[in-house]
């Protein structure tokens, strides 16, 4: 799935409105419908009581539209505003005016304590205070309201992103809502997926609010989440040497896990032949769990690191393989780090340097 920055998402909104004729009101209504569907599936709406905290931007407008859907679905909601409704504009103002025409119970807060009783006795809280564009520290009344939400003990749904989270970095801007559910609109924003923002989102749901697929085909949207890649099919005549032969130069005193996990991860990913060159004295410990690994015991230092005397043998083994991995758990002993640098300079096969190997190279990058 693709990811968007805050500015990229704004650009998609503009394109939908200005070029495609999908009005701001339609987008807001669809956002509210998505939130209502999540509430219905996770908490229920009919006969339930909700508290909705609304800011004065479009995020607050989404919350206002959601109130109407909750009421029409047989639930009830108390709306608390954290700033003057005079600041509403566009689709948010339209939804505010509709609620006023319907005589919905809307209260402008002067302090968070005014909402405490309703918040503690509702079935769920909706956070529609700040959207993804927040770029300043949260202070004053909004901060107090967020603190109240976080201690109320009720299920919390955040719209687009938990209020107080930066949409581009996932950073907590002073204080942030700790949601149980977050429904984000269009595409997930970076702040939805980077910590600590991801942790604040709770269960994250992505809804497209009627954006056509063509909007997602933009070349500027280059970031995406990792997907599961299936293993490549193996020919029936394949053998271990024909599906990847890798030499792992790894392991040292106190570091038995690094050589084991790095080598086994290659095999688990579909590799065929894993050779582990490690100090001789640690191999029996690794071999207890890694029975599929081919072991190449090496000469070691007094402190159980790889010795420089192993260099000729390691180069010989490297020439037999498809690639070399060097570094996991090698330790930072002086002799071992020198060995790493000398090997890295002359190994002709594709080379992946990891862990202590990187530290060794960084000490003498030349």
User: Order of strands side by side in the largest beta sheet?
Assistant: 3-2-1-4-5-6-7
Indicate the CATH architecture of the largest domain: 3-Layer(aba) Sandwich
Enumerate how many helices there are, as a single number: 13
CATH homologous superfamily label of the largest domain:
YjeF N-terminal domain
**Percent in helix:** 25-40%
Q: What is the string of SSEs from the N terminus onward?
A: HHEHEHEHEHEEHHEEHEHEHEHEH
What CATH calls the topology of the largest domain is Rossmann fold
Task: Tell me what the structure shows.
This protein has 366 residues and is of the alpha/beta class. It folds into 2 domains: 212 residues, Rossmann fold (3-Layer(aba) Sandwich); 124 residues, UDP-N-acetylmuramoyl-L-alanine:D-glutamate ligase, CATH 3.40.1190.20. Helices cover 36% and strands 16% of the residues. The protein contains 13 helices and 12 strands. The longest helix has 19 residues. The radius of gyration is 29 Å and the shape is elongated. It starts with 5 loop residues before the first helix and ends with a helix.
């Amino acid at each position: 799935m693709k990811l968007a920055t805050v500015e990229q998402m704004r650009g998609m909104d503009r394109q939908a409105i200005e070029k495609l004729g999908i009005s701001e009101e339609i987008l807001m209504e669809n956002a509210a419908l998505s939130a209502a569907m999540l509430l219905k599936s996770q908490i229920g709406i009919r006969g339930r009581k909700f508290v909705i905290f609304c800011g004065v931007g479009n995020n607050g407008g989404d919350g206002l539209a959601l109130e109407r859907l909750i009421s029409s679905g047989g639930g009830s909601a108390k709306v608390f505003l954290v700033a003057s409704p005079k600041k509403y504009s566009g689709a948010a103002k339209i939804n505010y005016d509709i609620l006023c025409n319907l005589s919905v119970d809307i209260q402008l807060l002067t302090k968070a304590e005014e909402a405490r009783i309703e918040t503690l006795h509702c079935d769920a809280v909706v956070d529609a205070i700040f959207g993804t564009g927040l770029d300043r520290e949260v202070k004053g009344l909004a901060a107090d309201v967020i603190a109240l939400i976080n201690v109320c003990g009720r299920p919390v749904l955040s719209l687009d992103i938990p209020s107080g989270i930066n949409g581009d970095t996932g950073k907590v801007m002073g204080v942030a809502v700790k949601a149980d559910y977050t429904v984000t609109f269009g595409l997930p924003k970076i702040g939805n997926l980077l910590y600590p923002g991801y942790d604040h989102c709770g269960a994250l749901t992505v809804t497209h609010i009627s954006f056509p697929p063509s909007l997602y085909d933009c070349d500027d949207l280059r970031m995406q989440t990792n997907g599961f890649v299936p293993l490549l099919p193996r020919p029936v005549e394949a053998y271990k040497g024909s599906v990847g032969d890798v030499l792992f130069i790894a392991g040292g005193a106190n570091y038995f896990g690094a050589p084991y996990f790095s080598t086994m991860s290659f095999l688990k990913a579909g590799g065929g032949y894993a050779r582990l060159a490690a100090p001789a004295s640690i191999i029996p410990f690794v071999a207890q769990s890694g029975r599929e690994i081919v072991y190449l015991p090496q000469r070691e230092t007094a402190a159980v690191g790889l010795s420089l005397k192993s260099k000729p043998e390691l180069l010989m083994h490297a020439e037999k393989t498809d690639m070399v991995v060097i570094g996991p758990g090698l330790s930072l002993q002086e002799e071992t780090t020198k060995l790493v640098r000398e090997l890295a300079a002359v190994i002709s096969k594709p080379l992946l340097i990891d862990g202590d190997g990187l530290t060794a190279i960084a000490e003498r990058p030349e």
